[in-house]
Design a protein that fits this description.
Elements: E1 9-11, H1 16-24, E2 29-31, H2 46-66, E3 75-84, E4 87-89, H3 95-105, E5 109-120, E6 123-135, H4 140-148, E7 169-173, H5 176-180, H6 184-193
Helix pairs in contact: 3-4
């Protein structure tokens, strides 16, 4: 676990993107990743899915923390998914899955949902950020080149807006940082409510 000087919170994520966004708003944190079952429940809506997973990650870390000798600090957890026509597009495991996702989103709008959860001694508070994203028409060659970069495989919906796929994004309606995996506005609001200073 990364242990900076005087962390204010734990971040329940190994994501370098979430870490960078937290650093951007001046919040000192230590990484305390949680491993939970991320299976989608039958008929589960994307918004409910990310909120449930963020809550479960925060809760898992809270239980671990209570049984450890580590300092008891608030825990911030997040989960992000992409949805198209209400269908959840998770992280692709194969080239074929990545190609299918990118082909489906080509020339269309999709949604990116990020659920947040902040666990404190008073309980777990959640927040949701939902953003509409329009992807340009992608050629087979563009999709193949992007898959060959390796970037799609650890990202929901098989792309990262902050990476090479930024050239595919025509416009967004909502939170750019939310699409990256940690909506800054909602994160800061949750932390402020818990008395944690940002900036």
């Amino acid at each position: 676990m990364t242990q900076p000087v005087n962390p204010k919170i734990y971040l329940a994520s190994r994501s370098p993107r979430r870490a960078k966004l937290l650093q951007q708003i001046g919040v000192n944190f230590a990484v305390l990743p949680s491993d939970i079952d991320e299976s989608v429940l039958p008929n589960e809506q994307p918004q409910a899915y990310v909120l449930r997973l963020a809550h479960a990650k925060a809760q898992a870390c809270q239980h671990y923390l209570q049984a450890s000798a580590l300092p008891q600090l608030p825990i911030l957890a997040a989960d992000t998914t992409v949805s198209l026509d209400g269908q959840i597009l998770g992280k692709p495991e194969t080239v074929e899955e990545a190609r299918s996702m990118l082909s489906q989103m080509s020339g269309r709008w999709h949604e990116v949902h990020t659920g947040l959860a902040l666990a404190t001694e008073h309980g777990i508070t959640t927040a949701l950020s939902s953003t509409r994203v329009e992807m340009a028409e992608l050629s087979e060659a563009e999709i193949s080149a992007y898959i060959a970069s390796g970037e799609p495989f650890d990202k929901a919906g098989a792309y990262g807006i902050q990476g090479l796929a930024g050239v595919f994004i025509r416009r967004i309606e909502g939170s750019y940082s939310g699409v990256m995996g940690l909506p800054i506005y909602e994160t800061a609001a949750l932390l402020k409510q818990a008395g944690i200073q940002v900036l």
